[in-house]
Design goal:
The chain is about 40% helix and about 10% strand. By secondary structure, the chain is α+β, with helices and mostly antiparallel strands. The strands form 2 sheets. Strands 2-1-3-4 form a 4-stranded mixed beta sheet, sandwiched between helices. The protein has a two-stranded antiparallel ribbon with strand order 5-6. Helix 4 packs antiparallel against helix 5. It is globular and about 45 Å long.
Length: about 240
């Protein structure tokens, strides 16, 4: 396919990537933009990190589930084309973040067949794609796209990463948003972001204080404002 207007690097278990992707889809509905949904794995980014020492207890299982789901996304692209990755990501995001959490479930459960197969069915994708959950041969491609994303921005970032007008355009981490703008606000926000991205010398605009995103999967309803937290270094790493 011809190169898209935006490369959007995502990990399916990142709530901020999901919220940003919802905003980007609002803009796509109103502007003639194309998006190539590409992969960045938080588990691979943190491959050399001591999870027990530096993250809350549930993070390792959640990040591992994200890698397993990206294996499925990689097989989906290979067998059904790039657009199907966007379909799968949308279905996963709705299940993970836009529905209330399952009682007693953990983040690691998202990387299981039991969790994934109904999502595939709802997206109109074949159930056998779930075989890729265990297919470590996909990890080489996921690592390559993770490296590609970090080469565009530097390594002290999180997800999502957006690359505008690739290959020559600028890329950066974010924008990180906790609330989904209204349709008319979505385009205005997009124009502001593209304006920044269009200046070759633009490097960073950042604050580490963040609201928990307005996502039912995180216990925050769309009409509520999530609790504010300080995300050191773009993550919840605790540096114990």
């Amino acid at each position: 396919m011809a190169d898209a207007d935006v490369h959007f690097y995502f990990d399916p278990v990142c709530p901020f990537a999901w919220m940003t992707s919802k905003w980007v889809r609002l803009v796509m509905d109103q502007r003639d933009y194309t998006v190539d949904w590409r992969f960045i794995s938080l588990r691979l980014v943190n491959a050399h990190v001591d999870y027990a020492a530096q993250f809350p207890p549930e993070y390792e299982g959640g990040h591992t589930a994200g890698l397993r789901l990206l294996r499925v996304a990689a097989r989906t692209r290979a067998e059904h084309g790039p657009a199907a990755v966007g379909t799968l990501y949308e279905a996963l995001g709705r299940r993970i973040f836009d529905t209330p959490p399952d009682p007693g479930a953990t983040g690691g459960d998202r990387g299981t067949r039991t969790y994934l197969e109904p999502v595939l069915a709802g997206a109109g994708l074949p159930a056998e794609l779930a075989d890729a959950l265990e297919d470590t041969s996909q990890d080489q491609l996921i690592q390559a796209e993770t490296d590609e994303a970090l080469a565009l921005t530097g390594k002290d970032v999180g997800t999502p990463i957006l690359h505008f007008q690739p290959p020559a355009g600028v890329a950066f981490f974010g924008p990180v948003i906790s609330r989904l703008p209204a349709e008319d606000e979505a385009v205005a926000l997009w124009d502001h972001v593209v304006g920044l991205a269009g200046f070759p010398g633009f490097a960073e605009l950042k604050r580490s204080l963040r609201e928990l995103p307005q996502l039912r999967g995180l216990g925050v309803e769309p009409d509520q404002v999530g609790a504010q937290e300080d995300w050191h270094g773009g993550s919840r790493r605790q540096h114990r």
